[in-house]
Sequence to fold (98 residues):
Amino acid sequence: MEKQLRKDANEWDDLFNGGPGLRKSQEGLNTLAEKLFKIAKDSVSKALKRHTAAIGKREEQLIARELVAKHLDQCIKQRKTLEALCKHIFQKNHDLYL
Fold:
């Protein structure tokens, strides 16, 4: 993002400091307007691409997070079941020993 901002700033400086011909003749003004439009359009399109990519990554991460949460819940439930089973077996063995 910083790279793009520096590039845009350099292009703006080049346009406004670019020669007096750009600001005095009709053709120069048209060229200046075209360049300004191109700079703005490129900046917006690049920002939109980054935004859509970020949204896509966010959706993937949310799905992955939900899967991990489900797996964690399953593991906790399984651990509790095994713990109860082991306690029951140990208690039964202890009763038999006595």
